[in-house]
Amino acid sequence: xxxxxxxxxxxxxxxxxxxxxxxxxxxxxxxxxxxxxxxxxxxxxxxxxxxxxxxxxxxxxxxxxxxxxxxxxxxxxxxxxxxxxxxxxxxxxxxxxxxxxxxxxxxxxxxxxxxxxxxxxxxxxxxxxxxxxxxxxxxxxxxxxxxxxxxxxxxxxxxxxxxxxxxxxxxxxxxxxxxxxxxxxxxxxxxxxxxxxxxxxxxxxxxxxxxxxxxxxxxxxxxxxxxxxxxxxxxxxxxxxxxxxxxxxxxxxxxxxxxxxxxxxxxxxxxxxxxxxxxxxxxxxxxxxxxxxxxxxxxxxxxxxxxxxxxxxxxxxxxxxxxxxxxxxxxxxxxxxxxxxxxxxxxxxxxxxxxxxxxxxxxxxxxxxxxxxxxxxxxxxxxxxxxxxxxxxxxxxxxxxxxxxxxxxxxxxxxxxxxxxxxxxxxxxxxxxxxxxxxxxxxx
Length: 444
Prior knowledge:
Helix content is 49%, strand content 10%. By secondary structure, the chain is an alpha/beta fold. The chain has two domains: 2-87; 96-438, Alpha-Beta Barrel (TIM Barrel), CATH 3.20.20.300.
C-alpha cells in the first residue's frame, strides 16, 4: 500500500512537471516550481535512504524523482532564460537581437500583470499592444487606470515608437472585462427584439456602441474585441462549453440582422476613435466544443459558410477598417488538419486572395488549449506564415517570453516568410491621435 501511494505521488508529480507553466495551471504559477522541486528532493531523499538499506524496489522511485527534478529544473531554466533575454536586451543602436525582437514584437498584443516587466517590453518596442482586462483594473478608479495607460503611451512616444494598441474585451453582457469601473451593459441582442425594422436596428446598435465607446476612449482604449458576428445557435451551449458561450453573446441567428447591427456598432466605435474587431471568424455558432480547452471542429459545408455564416464578416470587412479575429476552430470544408488561425488555406487563399482583403487579422488567444496543445512556438510561426498580422497572448501573458524567443530565432533563420507584407499592413493603421485612437475610415 505504501509503495502504491508513492507511485501515485510520483506519477502526479511527473504529470505536473511535464505541464509546467501550462495556461490551465496558471493559478499554481507562483508555487508550481518550488513545490515540485521540494517534492522531488524529498522523494529522492526517501528513496535514496531505502536504496542504502538494500531495498531494490526503491530504485525505480529514485530514478523517477531524479527525472522529475531534471524536467522541472530544465523547464524553469529555459523560461527564465527566455524572460531574461527579452527584458535585458541591449538597446544600443545596431544591436541585432533588439532589431529582431522589435520586428517580431510588432506582431504581439499581450496581457500583463507585473507593471515593471510590461513597461520594459513597451519601452523597448517588443510588443505592439496590450490587452487590458479585469485583473488590470480591479480595485482601481477610472482616473488611476487612465493615468496608467497614458503613462504607457508616453513611454512609447519617448522612445519614438509607434503608439500602443490598447485593447480590451468589452462586448457587453457576460463579456465585459472593464465593468467595473465602466458601466455594465446588457448584451447587444437584448436591445434588438425580433421583428423591429432595419432603421431601429441601426439606431439601437449605434446608441449601444456609443455608450460603450465613449468611456473606452476616455480611458485610453483604442481597440475593442467586439462585435461578435457569430450567428446565434438554436440550442444552448453543451456541457463542455465552459467559456465560449456564443448563445449568450451572439446578436442574432439571422445573418442580415447581424450584418446591419454589426456595421452600425462598428461605425459608432470608429467615430469615437476605437477600432472594432470582428469575431470569431470563421464563426463559432455551430461549434459545440470550447477552444479555450479543446480542439474543436466546424462541420458546415463551404456553401453554407459562404452564403450564411461568413456574410456579416465579409460585408463589414469591405465597409470598415475593423480587425478580423480568427478563431482556433478547424474548418473541415477548408483545412481538416489545422485550426483556422494557423491555416494558410483559409487565411491566405480565402481571406487574402478570394476576398481580396488586405486588412489586419488577429488570432484569438494563443494560450487557448486548441492551439497551445499543438505547441506554442510552431503554432505562432504557422499563424504568421498563414497571413496573420497579430498574435494575441492574453490569459497567460507570460507566454510572451517564449513566443518572443521563438519568433526572433525563426526570423534569424529565415522561417518567417510574410513579415514584410504584414508590417506594411500594420503601418497603415488609421491613427487619429497617438494617445487616443483611430479616425473613422468606414465606407458610407
